[in-house]
Description:
By secondary structure, the protein is α/β, with parallel strands linked by helices. The chain has a single domain (21-443), classed as Alpha/Beta hydrolase fold, catalytic domain (Rossmann fold). It is built from 11 helices and 14 strands. Strands 5-1-2-7-6-8-9-10-11-12 form a 10-stranded mixed β-sheet, sandwiched between helices. The protein has a two-stranded antiparallel ribbon with strand order 3-4. The protein has a two-stranded antiparallel sheet with strand order 13-14. The model is unreliable at 1-24 and 239-243 (pLDDT under 50).
Amino acid sequence: MTLSLSRLATVLLVFATAAACAASAPSSSLPDPAQNGPYAVGFKFFQLTDTTRDVTTGGRPIAVYLFYPVDSSSISSSTPKAAYPLDPYFGVMSSTTSDQWEKYGIGAAYQGPPIAAAKPFPLVMFSPGWTLPAFMNLYIPIRVASHGFIVAVLNHYGDGVWPWEPWDHLALATMNRPLDVSFALSDLLTRNQTIGDPLENSINRTQIAASGHSIGGYATMELASGIDSVCNNVEPNLWPDGPLPQMWLPVPPETCVSLPPDKRIRAIVPIDGSNQMLLFQELARIKVPSTGIGEEWSILGGDGWQARQHAAMQGTPNYRVDVNNAFHTTFTNACEAGYVLRDIGFFSDADLEGWQGGYCNAPLSSATVENLATKYLVAFLKTQLVGVQGYQSMLTPGRALTSEQNIEFFVTERRNPNAIDVNNPPLFIYFPHQPGSAQAQAEKNPKHPRAIRPVRIVH
């Protein structure tokens, strides 16, 4: 078995990391968002079908990992650990258990215990990056659920995760992602109102957020903004020198559609999100509170991608968190997944070595980036979605400067009064670093946006 690797490049720039993440904990009366919260974590898996969308005849399948808070008193030595389906659509691969992930630093989750008594809880909908399954994004939902959130992580059909799975054109992926999230959200809210359902009265309908990585981050932003035409924003020359037909084949005509925002979403947290899939004026329609977390601006050549969404979006607050020394895939647990795939016999030692070279080689370790990402995500959602006092002190440039080694925290980009206009001016202005008064500028809608490169698990 040989492993084919391609680095999953990004399009934003945000979020610097600190080796000592506990240094900027919130007030002592609140759980530290860089650590596990007060709840144990439950897990359920279910699969939905959207009959209004093709996938030839039977509708589009949507597999969901659901994580939720559990009272610790509900857990005993006989409570089974969570079982994560690796291949929910074809069943070629078996499930893995929480134990197999815990040995590499991923938090524990349990299979199906009752939800904590303090319900209802806020809900976070999470969309992974292109070709990235839910199991490569376990660290976020487990940590976030332990702090009192329900988190739904989607597996997007047609992402070509495995060699036997269809791999859709990028335009189809960007069209289907936000539709999948909205459909799954509707299903969860129906369960929330269904007498006798395990999720009955468990979700606070007024506290719903969206998050996602890479093009899952694009979906997060689209859910808040809407998009005028999917095909208009996914050009076949995105990666003209790349080997992937999904990048340079003609855009499927059925993707030339507009998608509306989902007004149930009250806050967003794109993680190294692909904002180049939205026009600047579309990003400017975002009015909900937001925090963008991602690579530091110079990692991608200093072209201001993370600052682009920050300059455009109009919500209050609108934060930008740059993580120094992080790469695109270190915002996932792809590195840990390589070890688990080796342990179950899918990877050889040689495969694992190649995988590590692609996904475990950032200057900042995966564990550090994971702690930082969840730390700022939880602090932001607790403050802006739930209204908890005491975390706001973490969400400031000054706190990052004094308590973090690799975080640059931005509250506002400098904005020309006409900066949101489509053509007047054609450039946006941003701050490359915090602190500092130096400014840079970049095109609002560059003709050749930075490409996205997928992670694939290939024989």
